[in-house]
Design brief:
Number of domains: 2
CATH topology of the largest domain: 2-enoyl-CoA Hydratase, Chain A, domain 1
Structural class: alpha/beta
Strand content: 5-15%
Low-confidence stretches: 1-41
Largest sheet: 6 strands, mixed
CATH class of the largest domain: Alpha Beta
Order of helices and strands: HEEEEHEHHEEHEEHHEHEHHHH
Helix content: 40-55%
Length: 308
C-alpha cells in the first residue's frame, strides 16, 4: 500500500487544484530561470547558461538537449553530470516548458561514458561525491514528466549507454555502437544500467552484455528490444523530430499521465497498476483538452490543445 500511495502522489493535479508548485525552472547553482509560458530557442535565452550541454526549445515546443563535449566524444565530467541533473530537475519543476525532449550528442558521438581522465587519481571520497551527482542525475531523468527520446547518433558506451536507457525510448543511427564496459574497469554499471537494461532486453541478455562488457550494434540493440528504431545516419534527427512533434501535438496532460502509468507497469502488480492507470485517466476527464479532442474529432479538424 505504501508504494501505491507514493505512486498516487505523483499524478497530475486536477485543473483548479493547487499544488504550491513554482513556475520557475532550476538553473545551475540553484538559480531560478523563468521559462513558464514562453517559447525559448536556446539555453542562454532561457537563462540556462550551461557549458557542457546545449538546450534549445523551438516554437514546436520540442526541446533538444545536446551533450556538448565533442573533443572527448561527449564524455561526462562532473560539470556535465551536474548540468544534466539541474536541467532535468528544471523540467520537473516547469513541465510546461516543453512538450517532448530529444537527448543527443554533438558531432557524431552520443556519449562515451564518464570522463576517465578526470577520474584518474580521484580519491575514494571524491569518487563517491561525484557518483552522488550521477545518482541525482539519473533520478531527475526518470522523474522528468516530459517524454524523452534518446537520439543515439554514435558511440554510447558505459554511462553514455545508461543515459540513453534512462530515456523513454531510443532511436539510433545505423553507425551507433553500444556497450556497458564497467566490469572491464573494475566497477559495474552505476547509472541504473543493471535495472534499465534487463527491463529492455530481459535478464539473461542483460547478464551477457553486462558481464562480458562487449560492444554491440544498433541493429542488434533493435532486435533485442533496447532500440525502437534504427535510422540511416543522415536521417536520424529528422526521424526523431517527426516522432517528437507527433507526441508534442497531443494533449500535454494526457501524455504526461500516460507516461506515469506506463512507468509503473513493471514495478506494480497488474491490479495495483490498473488502479494507478484509472487514477491517471480520471485526471484527464475534467480537462479542457479532453473536450477539445472530442470536439475536434467530430468537427473533422485538428485539435488545439492548451494543456489544461
Amino acid at each position: 500500500m505504501f508504494l501505491y500511495y507514493i505512486a498516487m502522489s505523483q499524478l497530475e493535479t486536477m485543473p483548479g487544484m493547487t499544488t504550491g508548485q513554482d513556475t520557475s525552472a532550476l538553473a545551475p547553482a540553484g538559480r531560478a530561470c523563468d521559462v513558464a509560458g514562453q517559447q525559448r530557442h536556446s539555453s542562454d535565452e532561457a537563462g540556462m547558461a550551461y557549458e557542457t550541454i546545449k538546450v534549445a526549445i523551438g516554437a514546436d515546443r520540442v526541446g533538444i538537449l545536446t551533450l556538448n563535449r565533442p573533443e572527448v566524444r561527449n564524455a561526462m565530467n562532473t560539470q556535465m553530470m551536474t548540468e544534466l541533473r539541474d536541467c532535468f530537475a528544471g523540467f520537473y519543476v516547469d513541465h510546461d516548458a516543453a512538450l517532448c525532449l530529444v537527448l543527443t550528442g554533438a558531432e557524431g558521438a552520443f556519449c562515451s561514458g564518464g570522463d576517465l581522465r578526470e577520474r584518474k587519481g580521484m580519491t575514494d571520497a571524491t569518487w563517491r561525491r561525484q557518483h552522488a551527482i550521477v545518482e541525482q542525475m539519473v533520478r531527475a531523468i526518470h522523474d522528468c514528466p516530459i517524454p524523452i527520446i534518446a537520439a543515439v547518433n554514435g558511440p554510447a558506451y558505459a554511462g553514455g549507454m545508461e543515459l540513453a536507457l534512462a530515456a523513454d525510448f531510443i532511436y539510433a543511427a545505423q553507425s551507433a555502437r553500444f556497450a556497458l564496459t564497467e566490469v572491464t574497469l573494475g566497477i559495474l554499471p552505476g547509472a541504473c544500467g543493471t535495472q534499465n537494461l534487463p527491463r529492455a532486453v530481459g535478464v539473461r541478455r542483460a547478464k551477457e552484455l553486462i558481464l562480458t562488457g562487449g560492444p554491440f550494434s544498433a541493429e542488434e540493440a533493435c532486435a533485442w528490444g533496447m532500440v525502437n528504431k534504427v535510422c540511416p545516419d543522415a536521417a536520424l534527427i529528422t526521424e526523431v523530430m517527426a516522432t517528437a512533434r507527433r507526441i508534442a501535438g497531443h494533449a500535454p496532460i494526457s501524455v504526461r499521465q500516460a507516461k506515469k502509468a506506463l512507468d509503473r507497469a513493471i514495478d506494480l502488480d497488474r491490479t495495483t497498476g490498473y488502479a494507478f492507470e484509472i487514477e491517471a485517466y480520471n485526471r484527464t476527464v475534467g480537462t479542457e483538452d479532453r473536450q477539445e479532442g472530442i470536439n475536434a474529432f467530430n468537427e473533422k479538424r485538428k485539435p488545439k490543445y492548451q494543456g489544461r
